[in-house]
Amino acid sequence: MRRRLWSWVWLAVGAMYFVIPLGATLQFSLQAKRGEMGFTAYRAAFASPRFVESFGFSLRVAAATILASVLLIVPTAYWVQLRLPRLRPLIEFCTLLPFVVPAVVLVFGLIRSYNRTPLTNSSEGLAVLLVGSYVVLSLPYMYRSVDNGLRAINVATLTEAAQSLGAGWGMILRAVIFPNVFVAILSGAFVTFAIVMGEFTIAFLLAQPGFGPYMNQVSSSKVYEPSALAVVSFALTWASIALLQIVGRRVSGPRLSGGGR
Amino acid sequence: MAVRTDTQLLNPAQPRQIGGRVSWAWVGIVPFALFIAAFLLYPAVSIITQSVQDEQRHITFGNLANLGDPFIRSSYLYTFELSAVTAILGGLLGCLMAYAVTVGAVPQPVRSGLLSFSGVASNFAGIPLAFAFIATLGNLGVVNALLGNFGLNLRMLGFNLYTFWGLALTYIYFQIPLMVLVMVPTFDGLRREWLEAAESLGATPAQYWRHIGVPVLLPSVLGGVVLLFGNAFGAHATAFALTGGGGGTRVVTILIGAQLSGDAQINPGLGNAMAVGMIGVMVLTIVPYILLQRRAERWTRR
């Protein structure tokens, strides 16, 4: 009985730690007008053209990242499972590197190594670096998810069946593999989306007008609007992870989590 | 993509056993390998080589020696302390919560609720998290508003969000859920039979924990704390938003970032050396983590 009691005590302490800052943010975001609760801060935040621009920019970057990540990971994971199973530990190690290499070091390395090349001189080049960095961040989630998805289907048999019907590799990937791991791709995509939408470090250091840098910039001049933006950002993360949980119930999705950025 | 031959067509899963023919299977992972080389390998190698070169590309150890500079050294120490404190405190609370939803046998919905929340909250780090703590513990924050009713404020109580402990409290927010995610599977690995066997041999709960529970859990706990340490050491956005990224801060990631954004005095060699120092710290944390994890898996594998 005492064990049960202490369990509730620790859960309560933790829950307070989790809930109070969220509640405070919400309350803070609603009290922009003195003496009354209202959506003033939200209206002001949403009305800003810079908000619309940066949010739209991050949406586009997230879409590009997910697309690039899927195109890179699905064929690779498929091929490794079919032909190069011995390389799997190596590939897995590569996909876990983002947990070891902090975002600051990643972007520092990219800027320094591609210094004075079109990648750092032009805005297109910087966008490529941005999307590429986000693909790196997405690797652990996307690879794990897709790899699990591929394990759940019989890749060798499906490939043989497709080949015996005369399908080439492109056809096999498009018509057989992608549809079969679609749910796994989705769950990787939701995590990627959540990461990209609020990401600050890489976008800021590459001087890209993302939502993360915009939030930071607003905080230097406004008091209540940052809280409203934080609530929006939290809601986005919640929504992505909730969708992930719903989708993930059908496939063992990425349980591993990323943490501090 | 690999060249397809008729023998492969018949037996796509075992191409390597075809007698004597060179396998072209590796061609299939070339895009991935190129990507890793371009976005991880080459940058890492180039930071390391640049850190031992001066601006004329002569070999020098001056940059790495600059890591011994008092300010740089004290920054690493500060970040080390910040990471250690948040890893230990966050790890402790994370452990206790993981204990509560496993051994503590609270109802199932609480357990799945905590796990879902942890998945989300360990991703909360960054600018919004800093805003949340400013709204809570900042000068205009909710806690100050409450204390104001009693004519008090946090500053009078000796607390300032924008100092070491403010950063630490904020970091702990994303450390706890990560520890929960690490520890729940480990606690699940503690088998009921072990407790029953110990009890039937007359062990007290304290003896059970001393001789069975703690030794089984210890590698996971240590591994988790090491993981949290690395997690805090590499964090940038949260600290940036809280400290404004100014020159006064001593968080190493911010100093490295400042070398890029031009806020700090630019010294390319020093920036590289700091980044290499960071990679060094990360390697030093991830190696023990992998070793501890391997040891922990002995018990969690069923």
Structural write-up:
The complex is a heterodimer of chains A (261) and B (302). With 261 residues, chain A is an all-alpha fold. Chain A has 13 helices and no strands. Chain A has helices at 2-30, 40-47, 49-82, 88-96, 103-113, 118-121, 123-152, 155-164, 169-180, 182-198, 201-205, 211-218, 225-248. In chain A, helix 1 (2-30) packs across helix 13. Chain A is globular and about 75 Å long. Chain B starts with 5 loop residues before the first helix and ends with a helix. Classes of the chains: A mainly alpha (261), B mainly alpha (302). At the A-B interface, helix 1, helix 3, helix 5, helix 7 and helix 8 of A face helix 2, helix 4, helix 5, helix 6 and helix 8 of B.
Topology of helices and strands:
The complex is a heterodimer of chains A (261) and B (302).
Chain A: H1 2-30, H2 40-47, H3 49-82, H4 88-96, H5 103-113, H6 118-121, H7 123-152, H8 155-164, H9 169-180, H10 182-198, H11 201-205, H12 211-218, H13 225-248
Chain B: H1 6-10, H2 30-51, H3 62-66, H4 70-101, H5 108-121, H6 127-137, H7 142-148, H8 164-189, H9 192-200, H10 205-233, H11 237-243, H12 252-261, H13 268-300
- Rg from Cα of chain B: 25 Å
Mean pLDDT of chain B: 83
Which shape of chain A, going by the Cα principal axes? globular
Order of helices and strands of chain B: HHHHHHHHHHHHH
Q: What is the general shape of chain B?
A: globular
Number of helices, where a helix is a run of at least 4 consecutive DSSP H or I residues of chain A: 13
Task: State the helical fraction of chain B.
Answer: 55-70%
Please state roughly what percent of the residues of chain B sit in beta strands, choosing from under 5%, 5-15%, 15-25%, 25-35%, 35-45% or over 45%: under 5%
* Average of per-residue pLDDT values of chain A: 88
| E-strand count of chain A | 0
Number of helices of chain B: 13
Number of strands of chain B: 0
The N- to C-terminal Cα distance of chain B equals 39 Å
Give the C-alpha Rg of chain A.
22 Å
Query: What percent of residues of chain A adopt helix (DSSP H or I)?
Result: over 70%
**Sheet of most strands of chain B:** none
Q: What sequence of helices (H) and strands (E) makes up the elements of chain A?
A: HHHHHHHHHHHHH
Unreliable spans of chain B are 1-19
Low-pLDDT stretches of chain A are 252-261
